[in-house]
Amino acid sequence: MPTAAADHARTHVSVALGAAVLAVWLTIHIGGIFFWDFARDPLWLVPILVLIQAEASTGLFIVAHDAMHGSFAPGRPALNRWAGRAALALYACMNFDQLRDAHFRHHKHAGLEGDPDFHPHRPRHFLPWLGRFFGGYYNHTQLAWITLVAIIYQLSGAWLGNIVVFWAIPAITALLQLFYFGTYLPHRHRDEPFPDRHRARSNSMGRAAAVATCYNFGAYHHEHHLFPDTPWWALPRRRSDVRAKAAAQHA
After folding, report:
1. Kind plus residue range of the DSSP H or E element containing 41
2. Lowest CB count within 10 Å: 145, 147, 174, 175, which one?
3. Is 196 part of any domain?
4. Helices 45-68 & 96-108, crossing angle to 10 degrees?
5. Is 228 a domain residue?
6. According to the model, what pLDDT value does residue 124 have?
7. Which of 82, 111, 75 is nearest to 2 (CA)?
8. Cα–Cα distance measured from residue 234 to residue 124, given in angstroms and rounded to the nearest whole number
9. pLDDT digits (tens, 9 = 90+) for 110-154
10. Residue 238 in domain
11. Structural domain span for residue 73
């Protein structure tokens, strides 16, 4: 059982990492939308900034995901709610409470009919599953908020092209990243069975790739379902714990 001191330390790490992600996201978001001049500034830098912003956008979603599980700030539900709502609002005007409820259904019914992140009729097919996933995470209310923010940005002097390049494209890229590495690969059906009732697999990749692709949630997805109260940065340790326990049982 984690102690209060351990929970406090975990909160400090999560807040520090979340603040770093937020700093990168805000820098590119504000700088790109309001100050980038496509006629003056180097075009070769644009795809690099978009990729960095997509990674930061994925990070905002991961902060919100940890907040849903209470692992962003253990024992501090108000801070979890505040961080989760802020992260999703910045990322794409998403509703934290609705997504939290849907995510809990995903954990309860992973890989089954009641799982909102799963395509029960096309469990191996990427595009139908992606379409269902996209429809589940984007709705008319959210799109209306995005449109309103974009209008306010333009009234404040931003060009629509900058909004598309430095907000819309990174957000959609992050959605694809989250879906492919964090949902499709871990939960798609294959010929070999899943390891247990969680119907989730982890994927083999190096530590750097694990973080870059989906903040450990692709490489350590099974561990996440086994220990949903573990923040993203501590998931590799959970794999070591599982292997040590298995080795002890077979000793």
Report:
1. none
2. 147
3. no
4. 70
5. no
6. 93
7. 75
8. 30
9. 999 899 999 999 999 999 999 988 888 888 899 999 999 999 999
10. no
11. 4-191
